[in-house]
Amino acid sequence: MLRCFLRTVFAFYVLPLMAALSVTLAAVAHAEEPISLNSDVQLPDRLWHIKESGSDVPTTVIAPPEPLATPPLETVNVMLDWFLSPQHAPILLAKERGFFRRQGLEVQWQSPGDPSLPTKLLAAGEVDLALGRQSLLHLSAHQGATLIRIATLIETPLNAVITTAEHVSNAPTQNDLEALGTLHFGFTTREGEQLVIPGLVPHVITQSDEDALPPESLHFDAARALTEQKVQAVSDGFYHTLPAQLATEGMEAKVISYETLSIPRHDGLIVMANSQSLNKRADTWEGVVIALEDATNWMINNPNLAWETLITAYPVLDNSINANAWEDLLRRIALRPAALDTRRYRAYEAFLYQRGITDAPLEVEHLAIDPHER
């Protein structure tokens, strides 16, 4: 094929050129002056004249390449543990500052209609992530729920036993704590019902006292239940907000920390995933945690700007109670959300076992992980 091509080129281009040169040189040879190296030789126009025709001349248009399409963001649905609150600041600010988008994520959230819903929906695969407390995770895991902690947002408990001054003195004594067992309790969480109240209200009282009222589920109305005296104490009230709400009604609240009741220190707010999603969505959960850490560190470095960002984006947070709680909440934020305190989880499992609430302690790896170490 190559030989055929060369023959064609030679026949159509080289031979005519040689013939034209021969004619030109012959004409020069018959001129009056003999041909020399300085002689002028003029080629016929037909040898190098190119016919101009728009239809015959091929053209190539050089254009910049089309820009690469931005990969679609992965949607992550989060169920909050409560109505929107400053304690959710790491998540809210990670969205407002674009930290989730930087990880290729579009995070959406919703508040539960009932405090018991988040873990149920997560275990059923109805949501991708759920917020809750470490204590709730332990109880759920022992009931067979496939939940696992992947991040910590608040490192200390946000709940406490809250009652009023008429029932507890300024410095609660052992007698005061024992007297709590005679009060009519309300609860808002499973932990308040299953862990705190049984430790405060002896079983013998509920069996022997005919006037003893069973604990009541308060859902989200703990403040109203206390002000309207439907209950005398709340086993798991938010101590950053509930005392301030009672103060607006002229009631002096008394807060009894869980440590006073010998309940081990534990993570106050965690992010939980369904353990069956760990392998499939490991990169996604790691991206979530990185975004939360970026938001947390920005918030700590810019506390005033962080607060202004929150109340601008979410005006429902803009009230004096939340503003007064902001500084204390910042002190309790987990600076390394992924970091796992295994001792803390083992201690809580031992506490549940010693109380007779569980049959045997679970291993930490069945309860919590550090996504960066998988």
TrEMBL record:
Superkingdom as given in the UniProt entry: Bacteria
Question: What Pfam families does the record tag this protein with?
Answer: NMT1
Q: Which UniProt keywords apply?
A: Signal
Query: Gene3D superfamilies of this UniProt entry?
Result: Periplasmic binding protein-like II
Record's keyword annotation contains ATP-binding: no
> Which InterPro entries did the record assign?
NMT1/THI5 (IPR027939), SsuA/THI5 (IPR015168)
Start and end residues of each SsuA/THI5-like domain: 86-304
**Record's SUPFAM superfamilies?**
Periplasmic binding protein-like II (SSF53850)
Report the leader peptide range: 1-31
Report what the protein is called: ABC transporter substrate-binding protein
Naturally occurring in which organism (per UniProt): Halomonas llamarensis
